[in-house]
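Dear colleagues,

For the upcoming journal club I promised to circulate an example of a predicted protein-ligand complex. I picked one with FE2/S2 (inorganic) cluster because it came up in last month's discussion. The inputs are reproduced below in full, followed by the predicted structure.
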Amino acid sequence: MPSGWCFVASPDVTLLQSARAAGIRLPSSCRNGTCRACICQLLQGEIRYRMEWPGLSREEKLEGWVLPCVAYPVADIVLAAPAAERNEG
Ligand code: FES
């Protein structure tokens, strides 16, 4: 079930960083698109990568899996990130 947490995502900032700036913590480790710790699913919208091929298979990409540590938003997006946590206070 969606949390309804919203944050402003700049096209020049990764989704991971934008979420963090808004107090929402997504799991992460390498932050360069290889470890897949941050993987979550794009339900709506569009993202782009600046790297050639993030650590996702073609099938995963087609299913909407994204790596927010290297993903930049192109339009308003909706993410399913069950492991996200919100900083209190
Ligand atoms: S943090 Fe490693 S792939 Fe995103």
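Two points we might discuss: The mean pLDDT is 93. The beta strands are 24-25, 40-44, 47-49, 65-66, 71-73, 78-80, 85-86.

See you all on Thursday,
B. R.
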